[in-house]
Amino acid sequence: MDVVGLTPIIPLVFAFALPLFSVVVGGNRKIIQAYALLGTGLTLISTFKLFQLTYSSSLPIVYTFGKWRAPIGIVYEVDRLSSLIALVTAVLMFLIAIYSYRYLEREKGLEWYYTLYLGLESGLLGVLLTGDAFNLFVMIEVTSIAAYALVMFYRDRKDSVLAGLKYALIGAVGTTMYFLALGVFYGTFGTVNFADLSEKLHSSGNVVLASSVALVLATWAFLIKATIFPNHFWLPEAHPAAPSPISAILSGLVVNVGVYAMIRFLYTLYSGLSWIIGWLSFAIIILGAISSIFGALMMNTQRDVKRLVAYSTIMHMGYLLMAVGVGTQLGLQAALFHLINHAIAKALLFLAVGVFIHVAGSRNIDDLAGLGRKMPITTFSLAIATLSLVGIPPLNVFFSKLLLFNALLEKSFFLALVIAVTSVIALVAYMRVLYTLWLGKPREDLDVKESISMSMICLILALICIAIGLIAPIVLEKLINPAVIQAMDYETYVRAALP
């Protein structure tokens, strides 16, 4: 099972070697691009192999570093939940790497961009594959540091530096809170291995206070990473400042770190412990509802198209939080399916918006007027992304929103109503963008030429959105349901890791 340990190492090795490799090839941009594609491509192959292994095994796959078994050594424990999200991550990182080359054709420092990019991919995969709470902290830090630097890629622009510093500051607060949670875990149970923690939590009814404090600290840290209100403010600042491909990763993948970690804690470590998670689930659902409403309303106040899409992310993260907080199998099915669908559709939306920004040199919606008629492939892709995110059938997000609606309806009619109302509000904001792009009067000073390489990546993602929607029942039966059933079985997770 060496593929488990190898998967996050591949992009990390490529990242460390890239600065030296760049010197050797004299900074040749095409060779650097090919090198980055090789790294992300090999990572995709390794991740796909891991995905196959987990779905053909009844138990999670465990990889021990240095042959030291849990709970003494650090282990990677990969189940269907983590391997499925990892596969989506690897696919998107590969496609966005292709898109990035043309988008950054006028920028210097391509070798540093891809160095951080590969480091970010390593961190994201490490978060998903680890079976150790402290190693999760390390991988969150790797992910965060790379993301901070990529937000500040345009380092000669004041807004980029300020946005990156703001992101780093709130991110540091989150990781500090999680580190405090680790201290409580280790001080109480003498371990930070997920499986060992889960076993001891389920047999230690006399440490309610310590367990509750640790969970609250960890959860709040994850809420920051997932950009949930009132910890959302870094995201609308980061998106306008960052290159569009990085915006696609931030909203499509990086924010998923917080949601995934929350699922792992609530459904694996604390599974069934209603004496701890009952009251917390209520708070999570309320915060999710507030985030959804806030994000939808703020979308309609924006003139900057990237800020508009950023608030859409806050809205959808609220949906995910509500689904996770429900605490049922249907809720987790809805959360996982929506996490995947949102990652694909939101990455597509930022990449399509990025093509227009690349041509117009502006993020202002009015400055993009009429470009849609001259860039049909990109406009089609953007329309698919927006309609999908609103929940128009038969696109992919419609089916995950339908699951969300049903899961929340079991809890409360008013929670389900939040999904419906915010979707309508978001539709108004998206239609304003589409109307301006297609029917607005174009600027006469623009020489519009649609980039084939960037628009083709957008088209591929648009077709994926359509395809998932058309085969949604199969995706649910073959991929989502098996992952959810295994994720909710904490005893199997424990049995696979501990001797």
TrEMBL record:
<dbReference type="Pfam" id="PF00662">
    <property type="entry name" value="Proton_antipo_N"/>
</dbReference>
<dbReference type="GO" id="GO:0008137">
    <property type="term" value="F:NADH dehydrogenase (ubiquinone) activity"/>
</dbReference>
<keyword id="KW-0456">Lyase</keyword>
<keyword id="KW-0472">Membrane</keyword>
<feature type="transmembrane region" description="Helical">
    <location>
        <begin position="308"/>
        <end position="327"/>
    </location>
</feature>
<keyword id="KW-1133">Transmembrane helix</keyword>
<feature type="transmembrane region" description="Helical">
    <location>
        <begin position="34"/>
        <end position="55"/>
    </location>
</feature>
<dbReference type="InterPro" id="IPR003918">
    <property type="entry name" value="NADH_UbQ_OxRdtase"/>
</dbReference>
<feature type="transmembrane region" description="Helical">
    <location>
        <begin position="6"/>
        <end position="27"/>
    </location>
</feature>
<dbReference type="GO" id="GO:0005886">
    <property type="term" value="C:plasma membrane"/>
</dbReference>
<feature type="domain" description="NADH-Ubiquinone oxidoreductase (complex I) chain 5 N-terminal">
    <location>
        <begin position="72"/>
        <end position="113"/>
    </location>
</feature>
<feature type="transmembrane region" description="Helical">
    <location>
        <begin position="112"/>
        <end position="130"/>
    </location>
</feature>
<dbReference type="InterPro" id="IPR001750">
    <property type="entry name" value="ND/Mrp_TM"/>
</dbReference>
<keyword id="KW-1003">Cell membrane</keyword>
<feature type="transmembrane region" description="Helical">
    <location>
        <begin position="412"/>
        <end position="435"/>
    </location>
</feature>
<feature type="transmembrane region" description="Helical">
    <location>
        <begin position="339"/>
        <end position="359"/>
    </location>
</feature>
<dbReference type="InterPro" id="IPR050586">
    <property type="entry name" value="CPA3_Na-H_Antiporter_D"/>
</dbReference>
<keyword id="KW-0812">Transmembrane</keyword>
<feature type="transmembrane region" description="Helical">
    <location>
        <begin position="136"/>
        <end position="155"/>
    </location>
</feature>
<feature type="transmembrane region" description="Helical">
    <location>
        <begin position="81"/>
        <end position="100"/>
    </location>
</feature>
<dbReference type="GO" id="GO:0016829">
    <property type="term" value="F:lyase activity"/>
</dbReference>
<protein>
    <submittedName>
        <fullName>Hydrogenase 4, component F or formate hydrogen lyase, subunit 3</fullName>
    </submittedName>
</protein>
<feature type="domain" description="NADH:quinone oxidoreductase/Mrp antiporter transmembrane">
    <location>
        <begin position="132"/>
        <end position="425"/>
    </location>
</feature>
<dbReference type="Pfam" id="PF00361">
    <property type="entry name" value="Proton_antipo_M"/>
</dbReference>
<dbReference type="GO" id="GO:0042773">
    <property type="term" value="P:ATP synthesis coupled electron transport"/>
</dbReference>
<feature type="transmembrane region" description="Helical">
    <location>
        <begin position="245"/>
        <end position="267"/>
    </location>
</feature>
<feature type="transmembrane region" description="Helical">
    <location>
        <begin position="167"/>
        <end position="187"/>
    </location>
</feature>
<feature type="transmembrane region" description="Helical">
    <location>
        <begin position="380"/>
        <end position="400"/>
    </location>
</feature>
<feature type="transmembrane region" description="Helical">
    <location>
        <begin position="207"/>
        <end position="224"/>
    </location>
</feature>
<dbReference type="InterPro" id="IPR001516">
    <property type="entry name" value="Proton_antipo_N"/>
</dbReference>
<feature type="transmembrane region" description="Helical">
    <location>
        <begin position="456"/>
        <end position="476"/>
    </location>
</feature>
<feature type="transmembrane region" description="Helical">
    <location>
        <begin position="273"/>
        <end position="296"/>
    </location>
</feature>
